[in-house]
Protein 1
Amino acid sequence: MGTHYGPLAVLRRLSLLVVVVSSLAVGSATARAQSDEVAGDARGGYAWGSGGGSAAPAGEDPLRIQAFAGVGIGFRPLRNLDQPFDQEFLAPAYLDVGGAVFLPGGDIRHGAGLTLSAPIIDDPSGGVSTQAFTQWAFTPSYHLLLPLNRYLEDMQHDIIQLQGRVGVPLVVTSKLGDSGVDFSVGLELGVAVHIKIFAGLGLYAEVQAGLYGGTNDTVHPLISVDGGLFMDYEVLP
């Protein structure tokens, strides 16, 4: 007979796989960017931080740093009605803050980021519920950024962007009535749209789908939407 893995064990293995794949992808993109930098030096062109070259290679944007802050709400497509959960369809509203760094590139930008999330209201569920600011999720993620001005001829400036990400939430929760904490992992996918109001400031909206580990070797699916402000900064040579 084969070995049986519970749903939480499977989720942990999927999360580990995402981390490995993300690390390989970002490492590959970094190596390509460094190769382009060396080639630019050899022909007297663009070099990070050198200041001695001319303009950046045609069609390539510089290193980009983004930060964001927003609020969201979650929905449980599959509720765990057993005790001690007794979940409601509506999950508590939460705060989302974080940032990402995108490597130089053109049509598709590769990056890595970190998000910090916490509920800002108590969970309305009737069973064991999470209270406001007693659960913290730290989510390292691999990001893809698509500036739509690269794809739409009529869009002359970088006003609208699409961003996709895959992350591994590391969740720390305070135990109710106890001084200890619970630790769990998850898997999260997100798709966002960025709309710039000014050169480095704009609004964002994101849709997320995730699986999160819970007590008693349980897994909890969640769909959420959030939005807020984001800042966008290009590191010029």
Protein 2
Amino acid sequence: MAITFERVIQEILNELGAIKGATPADAQANFNAAPSTATVIGPDFVPAMVEPALAATIGETVEAIASTPLNPERGRFESDTVALANNAVIPRTDSGGNTIIGVPGRVRDAANGKLLLPVSADRVRDFNEFSGSVYGGYTPYWYAIVGGAVLHTRQSVLIRVCTFTRPTAFTGNINLDDWHEGGLVAGSVEKLALKENLFAELFNGANVRWKDHLAQVRSYGNPALYSAAQSAPSPT
């Protein structure tokens, strides 16, 4: 199963009371049809107004996923940075030039793909300074991120990061798990409901549902769910 742009847009329009229908049959037919100006009542809410709100809501959802290192959906938005030398500043774009969002993920040796282990910056600096003497013959895979730069003990590394491109077409499947459907509706309604200050109660209800949804996305950062696994900072 998958959630589609068309279905979510119609659900948003329905919550806004914008689906046309003088009879139950008409209302059902218009709700099941592709979103268009022919399926809505009046000029207050039409599909073209809903699309940017939905795009923003998807972006906020993906940002919450990308900011939660243990979230299982991170993988669908991940890519790599270019190869980074020791003490290189973490770039704002990935190797394809896409803007990075969220927090950095795993760090790998750029040559052999082996994972590096996070350690203190002092341990990385000590090894690099004394690799030819005290640490002679020892080749650790260590890294630390300090002040937006990555310190490491390899020739160069790749950092796994998340990127997001705002949708420009609003047909077909949305690249999120099915359970986000209600959250996308709530987040979009929240952004639209205060038009002309006529729908404050609708806004308040949608706002609560939307904030609850984002909290659930970020709940994968709870270390209690993962024992000793590295977790995200608390969302509160």
Protein 3
Amino acid sequence: MTEKGIIREIKENLVIVIPNMGAACFGCMNQECKDNGGLIKAKNPKNLPLRDGQRVEVRAPGLYLLCQVLAALLPPAFGFMASFSLAPRLFPEAGEGTIAGIGIMTLFATAFLIYRAKKKIPSGKAYTVTKIVF
């Protein structure tokens, strides 16, 4: 994920960027920005000559984003599969509709637990400053 913004502050190797709120922000309905006060914290591993007010491009690595997606999607899917396969053993007289309902309830319960865990333990996004935009 790539974002562009203006540098607000520089603290040692940490750059605080005010992102441009564009169409890409529609995906999370700006929730991530609201949680962080509308700021992106990024590192400057390339040691670019940065100063306040400069326009920069920041990027989160694709592997990091893939891990975030898998951490959000796999537990609910596994919860559904586990409850769907265990429900007939726990409730032998239950029909297919009941078993599917138990699986769907487990799917939503697991997704809610992942959501709550994400709120309590936010992921420290691994943004880095990739270039200066002129």
